[in-house]
């Protein structure tokens, strides 16, 4: 694991806020040369700490008004590989987590309507032979949703 110094942390926090900031602006905010900023960004990408640069799309503006969390369970371990193939192929799945407890996986799914959710459950999740149970939670509102990673506890 790569170690982060204070300059790296500052740079990563600024890039998470807005990755389109000019290098000169980042240089001024952090107090190091533009060439240093450029070199650090390249190193952070090379080391895998920065995994990419992306546009953050407002889901509602794209007509994706329904956010759901779906817990999925089965007892036969052979189900997992097929399930993961289906999930990885689905554009509706934002996140898939292998979890502890009574469930095997937790999905974060974004679709347009309840009909779209029903279609997703039928065609993607319940279409996997061996899936025994699901529980779906529909989000009414979100007080906080972020893609930013806290770097306060990152090793130095």
UniProtKB/TrEMBL annotation:
<dbReference type="InterPro" id="IPR011008">
    <property type="entry name" value="Dimeric_a/b-barrel"/>
</dbReference>
<keyword id="KW-0805">Transcription regulation</keyword>
<feature type="domain" description="HTH asnC-type">
    <location>
        <begin position="4"/>
        <end position="65"/>
    </location>
</feature>
<keyword id="KW-0804">Transcription</keyword>
<dbReference type="InterPro" id="IPR019888">
    <property type="entry name" value="Tscrpt_reg_AsnC-like"/>
</dbReference>
<keyword id="KW-0238">DNA-binding</keyword>
<dbReference type="InterPro" id="IPR036388">
    <property type="entry name" value="WH-like_DNA-bd_sf"/>
</dbReference>
<dbReference type="InterPro" id="IPR036390">
    <property type="entry name" value="WH_DNA-bd_sf"/>
</dbReference>
<dbReference type="InterPro" id="IPR000485">
    <property type="entry name" value="AsnC-type_HTH_dom"/>
</dbReference>
<dbReference type="Pfam" id="PF01037">
    <property type="entry name" value="AsnC_trans_reg"/>
</dbReference>
<dbReference type="InterPro" id="IPR019887">
    <property type="entry name" value="Tscrpt_reg_AsnC/Lrp_C"/>
</dbReference>
<dbReference type="Pfam" id="PF13412">
    <property type="entry name" value="HTH_24"/>
</dbReference>
<protein>
    <submittedName>
        <fullName>Lrp/AsnC family leucine-responsive transcriptional regulator</fullName>
    </submittedName>
</protein>
């Amino acid at each position: 694991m790569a170690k982060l110094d204070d300059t790296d942390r500052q740079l990563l926090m600024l890039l998470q806020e807005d990755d389109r900031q000019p290098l000169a602006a980042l240089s001024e905010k952090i107090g190091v040369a533009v060439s240093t900023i450029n070199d650090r960004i390249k190193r952070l990408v090379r080391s895998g700490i920065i995994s990419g640069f992306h546009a953050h799309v407002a889901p509602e503006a794209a007509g994706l008004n329904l956010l759901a969390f779906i817990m999925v369970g089965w007892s036969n371990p052979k189900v997992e590989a097929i399930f993961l193939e289906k999930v990885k192929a689905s554009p509706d799945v934002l996140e898939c987590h292998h979890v502890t407890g009574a469930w095997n996986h937790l999905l974060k799914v974004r679709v347009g309507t309840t009909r779209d959710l029903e279609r997703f459950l039928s065609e993607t999740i319940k279409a996997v032979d061996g899936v025994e149970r699901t529980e779906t939670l529909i989000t009414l509102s979100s007080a906080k949703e972020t893609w930013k990673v806290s770097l306060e506890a990152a090793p130095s």
